[in-house]
Amino acid sequence: MNIYGAPAAELKDYTYSKGLEDSGWVWDAETLDPYIADAQKAMPDSKMLSDPMPDAKERADIIAYLSTLRAAAPTVTDDVN
Description:
Blueprint: H1 18-22, H2 29-37, H3 39-42, H4 56-67
Helix pairs in contact: 2-4
């Protein structure tokens, strides 16, 4: 799953909170940092079940890791049979 750079609440097989569905968020450093820090504070009706993560360095490390998990662009070939 490509999280970083993806719109929030886009998976079809999960029921998201109304707040997240209506947020217009794209998962990037600006949105992930406060959400990981304290999901309930960033999105009061969040369904995210996690303890707050107050350590900014830990959050930065997680965000940096997530940013590397983007799928490579598909290869286009000129093969026409």
